[in-house]
Amino acid sequence: xxxxxxxxxxxxxxxxxxxxxxxxxxxxxxxxxxxxxxxxxxxxxxxxxxxxxxxxxxxxxxxxxxxxxxxxxxxxxxxxxxxxxxxxxxxxxxxxxxxxxxxxxxxxxxxxxxxxxxxxxxxxxxxxxxxxxxxxxxxxxxxxxxxxxxxxxxxxxxxxxxxxxxxxxxxxxxxxxxxxxxxxxxxxxxxxxxxxxxxxxxxxxxxxxxxxxxxxxxxxxxxxxxxxxxxxxxxxxxxxxxxxxxxxxxxxxxxxxxxxxxxxxxxxxxxxxxxxxxxxxxxxxxxxxxxxxxxxxxxxxxxxxxxxxxxxxxxxxxxxxxxxxxxxxxxxxxxxxxxxxxxxxxxxxxxxxxxxxxxxxxxxxxxxxxxxxx
Amino acid sequence: xxxxxxxxxxxxxxxxxxxxxxxxxxxxxxxxxxxxxxxxxxxxxxxxxxxxxxxxxxxxxxxxxxxxxxxxxxxxxxxxxxxxxxxxxxxxxxxxxxxxxxxxxxxxxxxxxxxxxxxxxxxxxxxxxxxxxxxxxxxxxxxxxxxxxxxxxxxxxxxxxxxxxxxxxxxxxxxxxxxxxxxxxxxxxxxxxxxxxxxxxxxxxxxxxxxxxxxxxxxxxxxxxxxxxxxxxxxxxxxxxxxxxxxxxxxxxxxxxxxxxxxxxxxxxxxxxxxxxxxxxxxxxxxxxxxxxxxxxxxxxxxxxxxxxx
Lengths: 374, 310
Fold this sequence. Notes:
The structure holds two protein chains of two kinds. By secondary structure, chain A is of the alpha/beta class. Chain A has helices at about 10-20, 175-180, 180-190, 210, 215-235, 250-260, 290-300, 320-335, 350-355, 355-365, and strands at about 25-30, 30-35, 40-45, 55, 60, 65-70, 80-85, 90-95, 100-105, 110-115, 135-140, 145-155, 165-170, 200, 245-250, 270, 310-315, 340-345, 370-374. The longest helix of chain A has 18 residues, at about 215-235. By secondary structure, chain B is an alpha/beta fold. Chain B is globular, with a radius of gyration of 20 Å.
């Protein structure tokens, strides 16, 4: 940018050439400059990061149609953002027109800023040598919910009926597949022998903010309906340490709650950015949807018990839940639970959760690379 | 005396063909054991291109599946034993972890050299005692299994073992590939093949080499979770006693961690811990060491010293 303005206001052709040659946002060490080109009354950077103002105003660059804002982003960070454009008094959120890197989520898409030192892990990208697992659809007749529930079952590439497999139950399974490339990750990690071949049950809820919020029915459904169904249908290792539950955000709460309500049933927990809100005194300020979560977490923090032998927790440091997640760690360790806690320079989003899967899964389910000497 | 040629991984450097040519190992019919490759067992076209003569894969992995499919009693007993061994390994790992932490911290602690040396000797003796205890427990589980299901008790197992023995009778040389060392050892033991190799010329790489020693040690310092403590897994066929073979060490071993390497060496001493990297060759006549190419041994001081041909 400085070069562009070195000789005063740049000509339009110089701006065109600059835009065509550069990669946006402009990353220079820990300085990241976002650039918008166009007519507007105001432009804001919206990145929903805890610790930063939600709207960072751009500066109009005199004599041009360029707008820019520079923020400091620590090494290895990855953030998702949009531009807020104000035109004729109307505000609209748009993707960064100069940046092709986009992350999708259930609400749409965001532009992605990959800070200095961030590299997308290779094991999240399709590897043509890795054999693909398959996914089949099953229906469970849930007495608890009084309705049929569909689950997707991931079977590893070399699935054989005469073998026995660990089981992982995943909350928001379809979102994990779509937005966190879970199938690619599973295929790759198994191919690399970093996790064992395993069966993965991908669950859904049409009302996740209620059912995942420490709902007794959901815990019962997982432990008493889904687990027996999968155990009857597939060859599984019949040990708690070979059974895990995983979830992100409210899915993390649901996983922890189910393991807590049915101790000894699930020996492994993978909790990503768990919405572990609690109140030491007075009311919490996260809204009524969190009421049952806070009740559960307050109970849990009082009497954690031994929900699982081994746990993996991760949380982005740019999300407000980092406080709740960090403060849960000593409570779990005090119980003698073997916990690996990982913080990431990222926020509450699916690609953050994707990027942590290798560590989480291989911590809970170490693969046979240890035993294989090719 | 039968020849034993031990190699490292055959990728990226493939030295199998050259070694076979150079050493003049008898090339009559060659029995191949590729059970470590599990489902890919028998996929030996690459080997055929490198090794002249007729190759017969013993198909131990597939034979075991066949036996299990017709003998439910054996299958259940085998599964039960494997569960016991897995559980035992987990318990051993719990104890090992604490001893290893103590031993490593001693090595890094600041006290008089004399004081540290005495404590270190004791820490290593505790590690050795745990390893010995673990091997003893493994052996007792195997004995209980053998008592319950001997080869003679299972018709289908005896039938397959007999067929394997007949093939081996005609093969002066056996080639054992790498792969999953646990599966490989399991299948060798199941059919008693480990007891039929003593008079054979052997060419073996990676996991195949590990099972020929009298001690199999699992190791990997570079898993996604970082370093794991090396674990005694089992005794091997015992044809090359006094060695711990470490295949693919350049990729798996933190070679600059002198504390860790020194501890490894002392823990398994008097056995010699030697690396087998891609391109390595370790040659024996019977149990006598003859030649080494690109082979290193771990030293007490935590270094890797080149093994010289005598």
